[in-house]
Amino acid sequence: MENTVLHRAETRGHANHGWLDSHHTFSFASYHNPDRMHFGVLRVLNDDRVDAGMGFGTHPHDNMEIISIPLEGDLEHKDNMGTHTVIKKGDIQVMSAGTGIQHSEYNRNTDKLTKFLQIWIFPNKRNVTPRYDQITMNETDRHNKLQQVLSPNPDDEGVWIHQDAWFHMGKFDTDVATDYKIKKEGNGVYAFVLEGSFTIGDIQLNRRDGLGVWNTDAINLKATSDNAEILLMEVPMALR
C-alpha cells in the first residue's frame, strides 16, 4: 500500500525506570526520533507497564487531549478538579487539559501490574476549560467488529475530544475481516495491534506493531490469529 508508515514493535523507543516500563511509538521524554514526531495530530502513543504500588506523581498538562486505555489491572486517578477515581480494563479515560490541569496516576494494587496505553492528541481548540471523563465500554460489543470508543461528538458512543478523531477497538477470531471507512476527508488512520496478528492490505502486523495509512477512503483488516485485538485511531493529518 502507498501512503503508509510502518512501526514495528521492536523499533519503538524504550525507557525502563524500574517501576515504569514504557515503549514509545513517537518521540517522548528522553526518546527523540525526528522521523517519529507524530502521525497527524496523534502526538503520543505510549505502551506503559506500572509496577504494583507505583505511579506518576502530580504533574501538569495543558492544551492536549489525553486518552488512557487500561489493558490490565487498575489505575487510580486524582486531579485538581476534584476527580478521584479508578480506571480498569474496559474503561476509556479522557482529559482535555486546555488551560491547564494537574493530575496523578497510580497503581494502587499491591500484588499486580497495571498496563495501559497513554495517548496524546493535539486539540483543534486551544485554552478550553479543562475537563475529565471516563466511561465503561461493553467489550462484548467489539467481538468480530469494530466498537467506537471515541469521537468528536458527545452524543456518540464512547468518550469525546476536541478534535475530529474517531477511535475504534475490535477483538477478532482468526480469518475474520472487516473494512474501516474514513469518516472525514483529510484524515488518516493509525492501527495499533494490541494482541495477536492482522493483515491490513498486504502488510502483516503482529503484537504491538503500528501502521499509519493516509490518502485513502478505507482500509481492510483481517485477523490472522485467534483473539486478535486492534485499536484504530482516525485523526486529521494536518496540524492546526
UniProtKB/TrEMBL annotation:
| Residue stretches making up the Pirin N-terminal domain | 11-121
> Which ranges carry the Quercetin 2,3-dioxygenase C-terminal cupin domain?
149-235
* CDD domains registered for this protein in UniProt: cupin_Yhhw_N (cd02910)
What PANTHER family does the annotation carry? Answer: QUERCETIN 2,3-DIOXYGENASE
Annotated family: Belongs to the pirin family.
Q: What is this protein called?
A: Pirin family protein
